[in-house]
Design goal:
By secondary structure, the protein is α+β, with helices and mostly antiparallel strands. Helices cover 28% and strands 33% of the residues. An 8-stranded antiparallel beta sheet has the order 1-5-4-3-2-8-7-6. Strand 6 and strand 7 form a beta hairpin. It comes from Winogradskyella marincola.
Length: 145
């Protein structure tokens, strides 16, 4: 789900909390050693996300925030802010010449540059959180009939 988060809206806050959970508390943020990525350059997006990119040849930036049940991808377009809400069960990550995040029929590709390399530990943490979440809902290996 993509929402415009330029201005505070309590309805948006509730939607985000319902889909990916409330933000981590301070103790959890300290245990995780941070829940946000550094700013990365958005290289490419799917056609249905083109409205969140700058029309002129400006560089588009985005960052990722961890939540208990998913992630938020924040993309800045001029003075507007957009947030893409992705629950873990929708999330697919590909590491091809940078990183590509796919979900809900959309994708965002982050460029492989210096800031992307600085986020390697963050992506490891993201994959670890997704794995922990998936293990909670793992299906049994054998079904009894």
């Amino acid at each position: 789900m993509l929402i415009d988060t330029t201005h505070y809206n309590s309805e948006h806050k509730q939607i985000i909390a319902d889909l990916v959970g409330s933000p981590f508390c301070l103790v959890q943020k300290l245990k995780l050693r941070g829940v946000g990525s550094k700013r990365m350059i958005v290289d490419e997006v799917s056609p249905n996300l083109q409205q969140v990119l700058n029309i002129v040849s400006d560089i588009n930036y985005g960052n990722i925030e961890l939540r208990p049940k998913g992630i938020l991808i924040h993309i800045t377009k001029g003075l507007k802010n957009f947030t893409w809400i992705i629950p873990y069960y929708h999330l697919v990550i590909y590491k091809i010449n940078g990183s590509s995040i796919h979900a809900q029929g959309k994708f965002v590709h982050f460029r492989a540059n210096k800031t992307f390399k600085e986020n390697k530990k963050f992506f490891d943490k993201l994959i670890d959180q997704k794995t922990k979440h998936d293990m909670l809902y793992k299906m049994p290996d054998t079904l009894w009939i």
